[in-house]
Amino acid sequence: MGSNGGEYLADIPSVVLMTELLRRMKCQSKPDKRLILVGPPGSGKGTQSPIIKDEYCLCHLATGDMLRAAVAAKTPLGIKAKEAMDKGDLVSDDLVVGIIDEAMKKPSCQKGFILDGFPRTVVQAEKLDEMLKKQGAKIDKVLNFAIDDAILEERITGRWIHPSSGRTYHSKFAPPKTPGIDDVTGEPLIQRKDDTAAVLKSRLEAFHKQTEPVIDYYSKRGIVTHLPAEKPPKEVTAEVQKALSS
């Protein structure tokens, strides 16, 4: 809806309006929730967050995407972030918290949010808490997608892709008929750079070193739920709903 009235309600199909109206009515009865999803790469956060977002009418704040959007939109914070990135520096915690602060004011975040990819360190968690406190808000729940490193390694390093079609295989869970070869075209399969054991190992080390203390930080408040992230996605969804209904 442009603020210049360029798009009139009359021009929007009724079914779209009704769907949106029903969604808003459903959303009104939902409790506010401010959630953080924590988990290593491949633990299934990306599968669960859209489900949680729709069920509880929350906005999804993925800090990487938000930073890129702020840079593209050339917001004051985005310009500062770009300066840091151009120098090869990390974007400061205060900047990221500022971008989250800005994003939280959007109407879609009225019922709360899902934070994904932040906070990665205890210092970031403290800064986030300070900012929320100023708004009279706080984090309600931290969902920890707990999974064994060995299972993750099997999940991720087993992924093979047929680059031109995007067809994906898994050497254990969904293997091609002939190892390393696409079923349809007979062309060779590749592994994404991120899906190699070496890359995963360094990402997991960083996760354990930096982010596990964050889980402890929130555990002291009794707001962490440990999810069995190695289970099939449907079972994880059921566990998430159980955690959020309490």
TrEMBL record:
Keyword annotations from UniProtKB, A to Z: Kinase, Nucleotide-binding, Transferase
Q: Does the keyword Transferase apply?
A: yes
Catalytically driven reaction(s): AMP + ATP = 2 ADP
Keyword Nucleotide-binding belongs to the record: yes
Q: Which GO terms describe its molecular function?
A: AMP kinase activity; ATP binding
Q: Which InterPro entries match?
A: Adenyl_kin_sub, Adenylat/UMP-CMP_kin, Adenylat_kinase_CS, Adenylate_kinase_lid-dom, P-loop_NTPase
Which segments constitute the Adenylate kinase active site lid domain? 159-194
Q: Which family does it belong to?
A: Belongs to the adenylate kinase family.
Name of the protein in its database record: adenylate kinase
Which organism is this entry from? Iris pallida
